[in-house]
Amino acid sequence: MIITFAHYKGGTGKTTSCLSIAGWLVRYGKKVLVIDLDPQGNATSGLGVDKKTLDKTMYDVMKHPTKSGLIKGIIVESSIKNLHLAPSNHQLDLINLKAYKNQSDAKIIIKGIEKIKDYYDFILIDTPPVHSHFIINGLAAADKVFVVLDPGIFALEGLSTLKESFGEFFNKLGLKLNIDGALITKVPKRTFFSVFKKNHSLEIKKEVESLIDKKAFLIPYSDDIFETHRVGRPISHLKPSSKVAKSYRTIARNLIEEDRKIKEIENQIKMFGIKK
């Protein structure tokens, strides 16, 4: 299963969510690849990889779209067994935006993934907030898209833009945009006094679910997340008993169960020769 994390707005927790879920999937025995499509390379450093030491990165993959096999040569192992990384650094910013005259411009990543996907149970793609070339490629490659946003009301504007603008754009290319869920991160703790106020996070959750017609998950704010960035290990491996870790664990379990059901259906189709 290929999962992309996306949103127009920066600082919503895309990278944290990508790495946290990847960590839990590995803890449940899955082989996972994280593809870092952000020139800031936060997913790369978030897995403890020094961006300055990299010889080849996603820059090489995006620069040579006709050489889809290049992605094999850039993958590195993280310090966590079965959690691999297709890294990125500031070089990726040198890639020019595409005109997108046909589907092939939006399928650079998926063509590369075709060469390696049989090795992994899950491939997770982290996208940047502003570079639409990378967002488009990440969305086009995905079986499932998680929109990641914070509880602020302005995050909904970015969600609407992602759904409407990219949805219309994908239709023109003959592609489908699959927004299958939302993660609302940094949900504040409720205090004694706040129980008498409206729970804005729940209101945002309802609005998001109404907008995408899919389930939204609430992820609590935690100071522990800063520590994961500092030491280069996901919350699943740093503080697995924390509330924020347990929230991501639930999502990972859901993904594993969904993937299991999909594979069961695919096996039945093969067994009985049913045409899709």
Structure description:
With 276 residues, the chain is an alpha/beta fold. It has one domain (2-272): 3-Layer(aba) Sandwich (Rossmann fold). The chain has 11 helices and 8 strands. It starts with a strand and ends with a helix. 42% of the residues are buried.
**Largest β sheet strand count, sense and barrel closure:** 8 strands, mixed
Name given to the CATH homologous superfamily: P-loop containing nucleotide triphosphate hydrolases
Strand order, largest beta sheet? 3-4-2-5-1-6-7-8
- The tally of strands reads 8
Tell me the domain tally: 1
**Tally of individual helices:** 11
- Our Rg estimate from Cα atoms comes to 18 Å
Mean pLDDT: 85
Give the oligomeric state of the chains in this entry, treating copies of one chain as homo and distinct chains as hetero: single chain
Q: End-to-end span in angstroms? A: 18 Å
